[in-house]
């Protein structure tokens, strides 16, 4: 269960740069530099692969509007998908946020159902907590995502009818 | 990860079995705004200015139209209902006003059948936005706010 951070020690690239490399947000020169670096640095290579897999997990869910399970807590299935990556969930999500600032327009995925439940259950909420804590979600839905905006931690539930 | 879920289920059952414990407190001013989000135009209704930055930080739509706005005072356990486009109905029930947050049960019905349900703890004077149903080349969003009275 080594975390992304512990694993990532290379001085040449940081997670944000590698995220931008994946998003093709770098200048051609910078991009080529990273591209060359990846051929020699296994650290950075594994980070890139890792971010790529995570990004796919999210994008599949968002693009197709389904996480493959209907009539169920899709929050659970989102989590299940992430856990299937066999990586520590929290480290991953935090790193993904850092490295990929604009995953598919959803710039601000900061909380997912269970995350919210685990960390805020029992009303032990800081003043800076989300506008709403989501205890449960159900229904005839194909998928659901719980989002929290960066602006003022406004809670958004986005669901797809099945 | 499984344990909190079980805990939640037990909590949910407890709520079902002992609703009386939750029926304390005064009432809550519940505001509901029905919003049509689309990319059909570039426009944001003035009545949505407060949540515009939030919506725009998450969604890629360029047009946010306020289809309906309503507010009601609800005592704990009382239903507030709003008719939505597409044969849908939104139902909100404040369950508990005693904690630091207001506990709401929110459900959406389509042709009478319950299609979506959630239970949330809303910050007093805060709001939550729920979205997803397709409508006229876009999507419907529901912004629900609660203020203790
Ligand atoms: Zn490297």
Describe the structure.
The complex is a heterodimer of chains A (162) and B (149). Helix content of chain A is 48%, strand content 14%. With 162 residues, chain A is of the alpha+beta class. Chain A folds into three domains: 2-82, no CATH class; 89-125; 128-162, no CATH class. Mean pLDDT of chain A is 63; it is low at 1-8, 63-92 and 98-126. Chain B contains two helices and nine strands; from the N terminus they run H-E-E-H-E-E-E-E-E-E-E. In chain B, the strands form two sheets. Chain B has a five-stranded mixed sheet with strand order 2-3-1-9-8, with no helix packed on it. A four-stranded antiparallel sheet of chain B has the order 4-5-6-7, with no helix packed on it. Mean pLDDT of chain B is 86; it is low at 18-24. Chain B has one domain. Helix content of chain B is 15%, strand content 54%. Classes of the chains: A alpha+beta (162), B alpha+beta (149). Bound molecules: zinc ion. Zinc ion is lined by residues 10, 12-13, 37, 41, 43-44 of chain A.
Considering DSSP H and I runs of 4 or more, what fraction of the residues of chain B is helical?
A: 10-25%
Quaternary structure: heterodimer
Give the N-to-C terminal Cα separation of chain B: 37 Å
| Secondary-structure element pattern of chain B, one letter each | HEEHEEEEEEE
Overall structural domain count of chain A? 3
Question: What is the chain-wise order of helices and strands of chain A?
Answer: HHHHHHHEEE
Based on Cα principal axes, name the global outline of chain A: elongated
Biggest interface between chains: A-B, 41 and 41 residues
Radius of gyration of chain B over all CA atoms, rounded: 16 Å
**DSSP summary: helix tally of chain A:** 7
The major sheet of chain B is characterized as: 5 strands, mixed
How many strand elements of chain A?
3
Strand tally of chain B? 9
Helicity range of chain A: 40-55%
């Amino acid at each position: 269960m080594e975390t992304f951070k512990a694993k990532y020690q290379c001085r040449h690239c940081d997670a944000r740069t590698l995220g931008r490399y994946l998003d093709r947000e770098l200048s051609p020169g910078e991009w080529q530099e990273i591209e060359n670096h990846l051929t020699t640095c296994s650290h950075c290579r594994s980070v890139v692969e890792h971010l790529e897999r995570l990004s796919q997990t999210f994008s599949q869910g968002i693009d197709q509007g389904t996480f493959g399970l209907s009539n169920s807590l899709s929050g659970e299935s989102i989590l299940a998908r992430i856990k299937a990556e066999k990586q520590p969930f929290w480290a991953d999500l935090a790193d993904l946020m850092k490295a990929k600032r604009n995953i598919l327009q959803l710039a601000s995925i900061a909380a997912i159902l269970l995350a919210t439940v685990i960390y805020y259950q029992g009303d032990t909420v800081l003043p800076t907590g989300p506008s709403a804590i989501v205890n449960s979600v159900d229904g005839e839905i194909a998928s659901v995502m719980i989002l929290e905006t960066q602006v003022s931690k406004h809670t958004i539930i986005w669901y797809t009818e099945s | 990860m499984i344990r909190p879920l079980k805990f939640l289920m037990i909590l949910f059952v407890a709520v079902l079995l002992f609703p009386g414990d939750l029926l304390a407190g005064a009432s809550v001013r519940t505001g509901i705004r029905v919003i049509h989000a689309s990319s059909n135009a570039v426009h944001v209704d003035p009545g949505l200015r407060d949540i515009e930055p939030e919506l725009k930080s998450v969604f890629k739509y360029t047009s946010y139209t306020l289809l309906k706005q309503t507010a009601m005072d609800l005592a704990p356990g009382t239903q507030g209902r709003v008719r939505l486009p597409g044969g849908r109905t939104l139902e909100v029930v404040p369950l508990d006003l005693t904690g630091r947050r207001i506990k709401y049960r929110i459900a959406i019905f389509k042709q009478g059948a319950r299609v979506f349900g959630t239970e949330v703890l809303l910050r007093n004077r805060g709001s939550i936005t729920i979205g997803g149903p397709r409508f006229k080349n876009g999507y419907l969003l529901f912004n629900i706010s609660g203020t203790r009275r």
